[in-house]
Amino acid sequence: MTRLTLGCGAILRGTVVIASIASLIAAPALAEPPVDLSKWSPEYVRSIAGTEEFDTAEACGKVTPLDYKGRLTFWYQGVFEGDPDLLRQYYKDFFEAFRKTYPNIQLEEQALTYNDLLDKFRTALLGNAAPMAIRLQILGGTEFAAKGYLEPLKPEDVGWSSEDFWPGAMKAVTWDGVTYGIPTNNETMAFIWNADIFKRAGLDPDKAPATWDDVVKYSKQIHDKLGIAGYGLVARKNAGNTPYRFMPQLWAYGGGVLDEADPNPNYGEVRLNSEASKRALQASYDMYVRDKSVPVSALTNQQADNQPLFLGGQLGMMISHPSDYNVMLDLQKKATGADKEKAQTVIDNMRYGLIPTGPDGKRAVVFGGSNIHILKPEYVDGGKVDVPAAKAIICFWTSPEWSLKMAYAGSNPGNLNGFKTKWMKERLDNIKFLDVTTSMLPYGIPFPALPQAPEIMNIIVPDMLQNALTGAMTVDEAADDAAKKVEDLMGGGGL
User: Fold this and answer.
1) Average of per-residue pLDDT across 8-35
2) DSSP assignment, residue 349?
3) I need a labelling partner for 338 at 20 to 30 A (CA). Which of 42, 219, 477, 478 fits?
């Protein structure tokens, strides 16, 4: 482990972030949260679902009049390959509803993939050609806020309360004590396995592996007995899927990039080369190199590549979104002949459980999701931001209704009131395993709320995995190399 002696500004700013969140939560002027987070459980979520009604047009009309005439340019991560058809429909419905509600706002939206969005946005900022508003993955908020590209923006600016959103999600949009965006959704994942594969491999078909050490053992046993991949390892470079699937393992073993898994992180210590972090990396090495029990394509796979493997009965278990279930339902419908029958057998044998713990009983999942932001006019194409139009679409997307619907198939509503809507009740009744993934929310850990986080998570962490798994470096060398890169990045700016 390395104490950061350089980049004191980053450490200080991280401390300020935590302090600001603490004051935000404790502020007596704020109303009580719409849900009781201390009671969080599948039973509690079911008990509040469908208990309140919300009128999105009425609420947003108080922020931006419904007859407002304006123009808005808006970029967002869209629905692409690997997403279920259900989510595609809700995205279509959202933009239709917004245009119907605000017929006089000329909306020019653009959907981009995860990596394309970040790359295009960074380039656009340099050329003062950015959109007026943008929805970014959770990693993006602090990066662009720290560089001065974003306008301050808090839930109260669009008719909501900060208490309507998860404290952990608000942390990801807070920099130097100022809020620069609003969460649209909160992502958590769980663990999925094929009960039939477990049974044929001599494992209990009704029990997920309890620990990450068990995942390694189960993966080997499945591969040795059945000749198929046991665990769906994802280690692709510069891909958003990789940190979302490796970090829960890293945190469970007691490791971290910095101290982001601590209750009150100050980002003052690099932990990627701690013994705990190395144990997590060793576990992935053991599965890929020693046991050869994961897909050979793990170094280039994204989660979308694991879905057909799982559906084809060639993969035993993986970290998963509820959306994976819906995607595989879509794939099964499109299959023909024997493939269709085989896919149905897999779906019938799908089981969901909590993500395994580390050796000391620690359970973790990435507290992910996306946030929506408004740009400063000097970086926008044309040099002007139509703020009322931007607030209209932000109010719309972060409303209880659309915050829930846009997260319907695989995530959770950013606005906590979304859990109380009729659509939440419908969702719980219709989407299998959703109660398990919502149960993972209390175990959620946000990525470090630092501008360097995108490079750390999308580049340095996957590079560490690649270096170890390809044999370019030993496990110790790969961890030490990654830790040095983080230390240099924190001290020298980097991005």
Assistant:
1) 41
2) T
3) 219
Alpha carbons 34 and 119: distance in angstroms, whole number? 37
What are 253-270's pLDDT values in tens digits?
999 999 999 988 888 899
**Among 412, 488, 428, residue whose Cα is nearest residue 166:** 412
Q: Nearest 10 degrees: CA dihedral of 488, 454, 248, 351?
A: -160
- What is the mean predicted confidence (pLDDT) over 156-165? 96
- Which pLDDT belongs to residue 360? 94
Does 173 have pLDDT greater than 60?
Answer: yes
Provide the whole-model pTM: 0.78
Q: Spell out the domain ranges in the chain.
A: 13-31+41-187+367-445, 190-365+452-492
Distance (Å, whole) CA 280 – CA 286:
10
pLDDT at residue 12, rounded to an integer: 33
Taking residues 290-313, report their average pLDDT: 90
DSSP letter at 188? -
Alpha-helical segments (H) within 185-301:
195-200, 212-226, 241-252, 275-285
CATH class of the domain defined by 190-365+452-492:
alpha beta
CA 315 – CA 343 distance, rounded (Å)? 12
User: Which two tokens mark 324?
Assistant: 């994976």
pLDDT of residue 7: 38
Beta bridge partners, 373, equal 134
Topology given in CATH for the domain delimited by 13-31+41-187+367-445: D-Maltodextrin-Binding Protein; domain 2 (3.40.190)
Q: Which tokens is 22 given?
A: 């603490």
Beta bridge partners of 337: none
Compute the distance between CA of residue 301 and CA of residue 296 in angstroms, rounded to an integer: 9
Amino acid at 343: A
Q: How many CB atoms are closer than 10 A to CB 196?
A: 17
CA-to-CA distance for 60 and 78, rounded, in angstroms?
Answer: 23
